[in-house]
């Protein structure tokens, strides 16, 4: 089955560029387009895309609120990649905290755009660049540290979370720790459950905000 994508951006040229890039790839289809975050929920319900590529700044409803709306009202929700001009954009970080699955620069090369869509669709690795890791670490707080302590991760789960924070996929973690892929999936699921995290992105944000891992 092809990966279906909904493009959400208030600039028609940006949507046209993304469509041209994605539809040139085998196994990816653009299911539709929206010019504002306010249209996202009904379009997601109608089209059921696998991935939403969402501009973070839009005039009526921005990507942060649109992400929250999708996750609150659509079950199961699609994967969401926020798209922006600047990698250290606080809006992008807030969108990730709201539940977006990854991040993409508008100036990214076509191959990077395609890989981003495939990565979030697969769901076992992370788009969380260094600039955003520094933002997360800078927002450290006692609540995050206390939540990490309450999680009481085992030594192996802690290792897995550190590798997740580096952006490694399950397969890469398995190679690094000399474990089977199914074993890694089990540890990842345990980490998410203990942290009360919806997905890998939320777990990694918790890891940085708590100081469990640091940028570098």
TrEMBL record:
Carrying 4-aspartylphosphate, the residues are 55
Q: Which UniProt keywords apply?
A: DNA-binding, Phosphoprotein, Transcription, Transcription regulation
> Which Pfam family, any one of them, does this sequence belong to?
Response_reg
List, for all copies, the residue spans of the domain called Response regulatory.
4-121
Residue intervals of the HTH luxR-type domain: 146-211
CDD domains according to UniProt: LuxR_C_like, REC_NarL-like
Name the Gene Ontology biological process terms.
phosphorelay signal transduction system; regulation of DNA-templated transcription
Q: Which InterPro entries match?
A: CheY-like_superfamily, NreC/VraR/RcsB-like_REC, Sig_transdc_resp-reg_C-effctor, Sig_transdc_resp-reg_receiver, Tscrpt_reg_LuxR_C, WalR-like
Q: Name one GO molecular function term.
A: DNA binding
Could you identify this protein by its name?
DNA-binding response regulator
């Amino acid at each position: 089955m092809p990966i279906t994508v909904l493009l959400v951006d208030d600039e028609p040229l940006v949507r046209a560029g993304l469509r041209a890039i994605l539809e040139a790839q085998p196994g990816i289809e653009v299911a539709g387009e929206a010019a504002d975050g306010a249209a996202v929920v009904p379009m997601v319900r109608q089209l059921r895309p696998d991935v939403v590529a969402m501009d973070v700044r839009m005039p009526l409803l921005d990507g942060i609120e649109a992400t929250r709306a999708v996750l609150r009202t659509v079950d199961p929700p699609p994967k969401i990649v926020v798209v922006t001009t600047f990698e250290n954009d606080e809006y992008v970080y807030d969108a990730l905290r709201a539940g977006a699955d990854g991040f993409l620069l508008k100036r990214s090369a076509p191959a990077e755009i395609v890989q981003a869509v495939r990565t979030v669709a697969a769901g076992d690795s992370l788009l969380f660049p260094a600039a955003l890791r520094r933002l997360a670490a800078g927002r450290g707080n006692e609540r995050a540290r206390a939540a990490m302590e309450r999680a009481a991760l085992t030594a192996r789960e802690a290792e897995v979370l550190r590798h997740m924070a580096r952006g490694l996929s399950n397969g890469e973690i398995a190679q690094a720790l000399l474990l089977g892929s199914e074993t890694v999936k089990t540890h990842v699921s345990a980490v998410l459950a203990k942290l009360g995290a919806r997905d890998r992105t939320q777990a990694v944000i918790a890891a940085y905000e708590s100081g469990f891992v640091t940028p570098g």
